[in-house]
C-alpha cells in the first residue's frame, strides 16, 4: 500500500491513476474495517498483521 510507504494521498491517487476522492473513500473504508483512526494506527496494525502472517 503506497500510503504505508510514506506517499501522500495525492501522490497515491496520481500513481494509481484515480482521483483523490477515490483514495479518500478507500482509506476511510480501510480505517473503519480495521478500527483505526489515523495513518499511524493503520501502519501499526498493518505491521502487526504482516508479522503475524510470517509466523505461520
From TrEMBL:
GO terms for biological process: regulation of DNA-templated transcription. Pfam families: GerE. Residues 1-50 form the HTH luxR-type domain. InterPro entries: Sig_transdc_resp-reg_C-effctor, Tscrpt_reg_LuxR_C, WH-like_DNA-bd_sf. GO terms for molecular function: DNA binding. It comes from the Bacteria. This is Conserved domain protein. It comes from Leadbettera azotonutricia (strain ATCC BAA-888 / DSM 13862 / ZAS-9).
